[in-house]
Amino acid sequence: MRFSLSEFKPTLFFLSKFIGLYLVASLLYGFYITSYSPRPDPMTSWISETTAAALTFFGWPVTTHNHLHDATCSLWFEGRGILAVYEGCNGLNTIIIFAAFMVAFGPLNRSLLWFLPLGILIIIVMNILRIALLFVVSEYIPQAMYFTHKYLFTAFLYGVIFLLWLWWIWKFARKNASAE
Hints:
By secondary structure, the protein is mainly alpha-helical.
């Protein structure tokens, strides 16, 4: 059985675009994060503040405190720091993965221009929900914190991204491909 490179050309083209976009965006993200060092970046602060506002709305009067010498924001409840939100928790890396896939899968058209911001908004909302649930776990079931943070809620967020990709492929990308 012989394989020719032309058989794999679309896959290789997709992978090279995805990896290239991901690397470039990750480098830019790294510059963004380090430009605020040692303090938390604005996105981490905003995600923390929005999570605190959501928790306050649902009955937990939560405040945030940005650390001056650490890229962390803390969620405080009843005078105690309950949860630390690090720069990796701000969701930007998951947004980079989502967007790199979407752009690499292509083509750049009108449906992508509205689906991409919608997907980013969904990821942000789900990340805020993830952090709020981690707050609840940290406050009420601290022994489950490691598992829920490391595995359960991380899988939840990546599952949402995977479902968004599937939605895009089934609903829009296949329709666009059959229209061409």
